[in-house]
Design goal:
The protein has two helices and eleven strands. It is mainly beta. The strands form three sheets. A five-stranded antiparallel sheet has the order 1-11-10-9-7, covered by helices on one side. The protein has a three-stranded antiparallel sheet with strand order 2-3-4, with no helix packed on it. A three-stranded antiparallel sheet has the order 5-6-8, with no helix packed on it. A hairpin with a 5-residue loop joins strand 5 and strand 6. The longest helix is centred in the N-terminal third of the chain and has 16 residues. The protein is globular, with a radius of gyration of 21 Å. The relative contact order is 0.19.
Length: about 180
């Protein structure tokens, strides 16, 4: 009987500790770091969503569209030219504005940390992204983010004797969820 009482008490304490005492939705994540690749799974790809605070697979059942998708640009002969970023909604959506490019990581990081306002004009694509660039991004829901490119890589790989371009980009990001251009 003593063991049953102890077991019941442990169960009650566990249930009480598991209760959610929050009174409202949590604040959205506004900074972070992520890596995107061109890898796909059938018709699905991974993109980045500022409002979700991370990478998401699209298309998805909730119809959430990523704000950033990575591509590899090749010339007509198949030679890899570099990494391009596009909006996850469509290829031609004005979402990118280059802010500044640096020769070293420390200067790029300092600039990124001190950007305090997003610009007014955006282009459809971010051509050719590379380390130490800072870009402003207009999200699919007309909000704003800033990214610092940390690393890019693009090369041709062979999968079952079919050569295909592969690309990846790693970046730090910050997001303004209230829709203003001020950070």
């Amino acid at each position: 009987m003593k063991y049953i009482t102890i077991l019941i008490l442990i169960l009650i304490v566990t249930l009480i500790q598991g209760c959610d005492n929050s009174v409202g939705p949590s604040s959205p994540k506004t900074t972070g770091e992520t890596t995107l690749t061109t890898q796909t799974d059938g018709y699905k790809f991974t993109g980045f969503s500022f409002s979700r605070g991370g990478n998401i697979v699209a298309p998805n059942a909730k119809k959430i569209v990523p704000d950033i998708r990575v591509h590899v640009q090749t010339d007509p002969t198949g030679e890899i030219q570099g990494i391009i970023l596009s909006s996850g909604t469509q290829l031609f959506y004005p979402a990118f504005h280059p802010l500044k490019e640096f020769d070293d990581t420390d200067a790029a990081e300092e600039y990124f940390n001190n950007v305090n306002e997003a610009p007014d004009i955006y282009a459809d694509l971010a051509f050719f992204v590379k380390a130490n660039q800072v870009w402003a991004v207009k999200t699919n829901d007309d909000k704003y983010g800033i990214i610092l490119i940390l690393h890019t890589d693009a090369y041709e790989y062979t999968d079952d004797s079919n050569p295909a371009p592969y690309g990846e980009v790693r970046f730090k990001w910050k997001y303004q969820p209230d829709g203003s251009k001020k950070f």
